[in-house]
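Chain entry —
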Amino acid sequence: MDIVVIGSLNMDMVVRSGRAPEAGETVIGDSFVLSAGGKGANQAVAAARLGSTVRLVGKVGADAFGSELLEIIKQEGIDSEYLSVSGSRSTGVASIVLEESGENRIIVVPGANMELTADDIQLLEPVITGAKLLVMQLEMDLHMTEQAVGIAHASGIPVILNPAPAQRLSDELLSHVTYLTPNETEAGILSGVQVDNLDSAREAAAVLLRKGVQNVIMTLGAQGALIVNSQGQIHVPGFPVKAVVDTVAAGDSFNGALAQQLTAGRSLEEAVTFANAVGALAVGKAGAIPSLPTLAEVEQFLERADSVR
């Protein structure tokens, strides 16, 4: 198995509106859709569509949303052996307000996602150690996340940790992370450095390296990504986007692509360049899983980009 993703599965409830309401205000929206998502599911599908063999570990509820999510994961060719159904909690949901600008505001209710515990992960040690790479996020129980990352680290399995939703993490957990992929906000919370330009991004990344992270890969939106490790730092530019439809799953598409490229043997700079292209494609389509590109689409995009450079 190339990649094991331990992560959330959610049904996204997406409202489009000219702008998000202020506190105490009601605005009239433009449209509403249900869309399969969750950071774990998004990242697993992103990697699978790009050619990796992927196993997803997680939980859904015994409800219509859960059934739909399980079916989608199977249709994508992802190993679902370790996806289970909760007997007491509903499937996780995310309430998403998309503004006309493409920016989003998200509230996640984890539901069944929170039932995967550290004890469950201990039993799944052979699943983790049998992967080339472990991918995790922070939409599930933090103790479970710490346990899984610790198992991978002890066995020499590289770990990508996407620290979202943003929260403070222990130095012990960070010291077990091979690739940390925060955005500017998340990097600021983890490091204590406000990130608002490349210089402050470098400063925040340096703090995270001192906490034990091996490689910091900070996503910078349209500016691309910043790689910082013991060998130095590289700013990898992003790709121009003609029109941003929405930014839902843009970070997840980046992380799934990064995992796929690293397990395919690409250098870190090559992997990040490719992941930037995947993110650029994802923001050009609506939804989470529906926006994730195939390998053929990414290759065509990169060919066009090369031709105009």
Summary: DSSP finds eleven helices and 13 strands in the chain. The longest helix spans residues 268-282. The two ends are 37 Å apart (CA to CA). The chain has a mean pLDDT of 93.
